[in-house]
Design a protein that fits this description.
By secondary structure, this protein is of the alpha/beta class. The protein is built from 8 helices and 6 strands. It has one domain: Uracil-DNA Glycosylase, subunit E (3-Layer(aba) Sandwich), CATH 3.40.470. 35% of the residues lie in helices and 13% in strands. The protein has a 6-stranded mixed sheet with strand order 2-1-3-6-5-4, sandwiched between helices. It is globular and about 40 Å long.
Amino acid sequence: MTGGIEEFAQLIPDSLLDISGKVFISGRDAFGSSSKLYILGLNPGGAPESNALETVGAHTRKVIHDAPDNWCALTDEAWGRNGHRVQHPMQRNVLHLLRRLDLDCRKVPASDLVFARSRDAAKISKAEFVRLANACWPFHRAVIRRLGVRVIVCLGREAAWGAIARLEADNPAAGKFAEIDRFVEDGGLKGVSRTYRNGGGITVVQLTHPSRFHWTTSKSDPTELVRRALEWSDANPI
């Protein structure tokens, strides 16, 4: 494994440094050692106008130079409304998943497909979102390859589709990703989480979005789907 958080930060496009957003959801410890799992959201939430000072560049500098090596936004940032120190459902759900997998959130690399912040992804035009995702992908490609990632856990369908399209473009010889496993929640929304794999050695697990579904309830908990993906990757090393 080569690299480190400074080396990954160099892959952030200069054109995005002054916009509202962030890159790192976990810090130096997570991006400085190998990890078979990578968590990938769609893009940072919140209104850009209310978070104008938290630019991609400013947040990156904070994580690299000021935050402890074991910093993790899932536990160390306030995502509650108006900055209140109340866990956001997304934080609570992802932490629940990692605990059940016996993984330390402070050692699991996590980021977003697109680094630009928006209150809702739909606020960014489709063409602009594709442009941003393409600009951010070299960062994610480097993380996946240098840290030895085998399973990408995507938070929501759009993040999964975005990752799959770019993984296929990176390695056309590996073929198309196909669904090989799924979990249907036994709750009111009947959300579906899916596992996709091709011949390239990477598994993509598309989970229901943790801001809308309650993973902490047994009927909606997708942990075993992720566990099966990790166990398969252990049994089938590259």
